[in-house]
Write the structure tokens for this entry.
Amino acid sequence: LLLYPKTSKDKLLTPTRIYVRSLLAVIRETGAIKALAHITGGGFPDNIPRVLPDNCAAEIDLTAINVPPVFSWLATVGGVARNEMLRTFNCGVGMIVVVAPEEAERVALELELQGETVMRVGKLVEAGEERVIYFRADKAVPYGRGMEVMAGVQTSGFTKIALVTETKDNK
């Protein structure tokens, strides 16, 4: 029996974070946000494509995501495969923000000024069969029952905002 450390059980019971105030402030300040995807049930593969044009896919660098330890624990105890974790849970990423590459630094700074934790996780590419493409999975840290976790060091806070930059070819 694997038990999750008692000190972290509150993280499992934390209500969904609401990003409205910080995102509205950044939208008003920069005018640079092209799309927003709230990562809820359905995780990355169901939520990200909803905000993208049909000709675009999101290429997500799994090593860029700082995954809270609770998700590693859930995957290990439940024997849940990486792709199912990414479909079922937000894995610590509460919101995907799509911006042009030249606006990424400014938007990240404004989000941080609003108190958000920001990480750059990918870019938009031409859509193929998959609308969300995971890369560098081979560099992700393996854990539990042969599964791979999106690697990273835990940062403060439970959910974070991730930036996906839009390429000039996929506007």
Q: What stands out?
A: Residues 1-6, 141-158 have pLDDT under 50 and may be disordered. Helices lie at 9-13, 20-30, 43-47, 69-78, 82-88, 104-113. Residues 20-30 form the longest helix (11 residues). The first strand starts at residue 33 and ends at 38.
